TrEMBL record:
Coiled coil: none annotated. PANTHER family: ENVELOPE BIOGENESIS FACTOR ELYC, INNER MEMBRANE PROTEIN, PROBABLE PERMEASE. Keywords: Membrane, Transmembrane, Transmembrane helix. It comes from the Bacteria. It comes from Lysobacter stagni. Gene3D superfamilies: HUPs. The chain crosses the membrane at residues 6-23, 32-57. It holds the Pfam family DUF218. Residues 79-235 form the DUF218 domain. This is ElyC/SanA/YdcF family protein.
Amino acid sequence: MHHLLLSPMTWGLLWLAIVWLAWRRAGTAWRAVLATLGIAILVLCTPLGANALIRWVEGQVPAASRCSAGTGADADAPIVVLAGGLEDEPRATDDYIALTPASWRRLRGGVELWRRHPAPMVIAGGGPFVIKEATVLARLAQDWGVPAADLRTETASTNTWESAAALHDTLPARVRVVSSATHLPRALLAFRATGFQACGWASDSAYVAPGSVGYFLPQLSAMQKTRLALYETAGTLSYRWRARRTD
């Protein structure tokens, strides 16, 4: 349902319905409001608007909260890779095609961080199937060179908040959380609310800098990116509210 509610396409259709029903009866001020809303929705359907929103979301993690790339104070801290979901039910622990692209990218980021300075790695993520997300990702991590002795999985959680809570009593306070740049603000909020001293490592960024003229034209990929940014913003607000309730 949230896919529909957060999509600028849904807003555009709703805007057209309102304009069709109310334009003739609306005064000058309300027509100006409707026109402004229409322009805003149109901009969010373009790479220009979508990437501006993505950049704002990813910028919610300040430099001080990002993990150091070298041998800083957090270099020996355990690495926590947050699974990014499954495309389909895995048929075996090495059914890598069942992983979403987000899961692949997050694990790749975690393995790259591990190669810089090896440390224990925990892969968190359950899912609705018998074979869990973290189980498949752990098998892939071994294929990419991470020894089984350095790997652990957390397979009971179904979302980021549950992952942080499930790991609370099993890891030291200082951890390095690996996820996509758009998801990191929400992830760090969850881990800190559960008592961790967490820094973030972005496995990838959804932001694309301006390019050709197509950057200013509506595109389906831009609408999907806008929906992602709004979803993560709503999730962060929800986690802030939940964190205040647990204080």
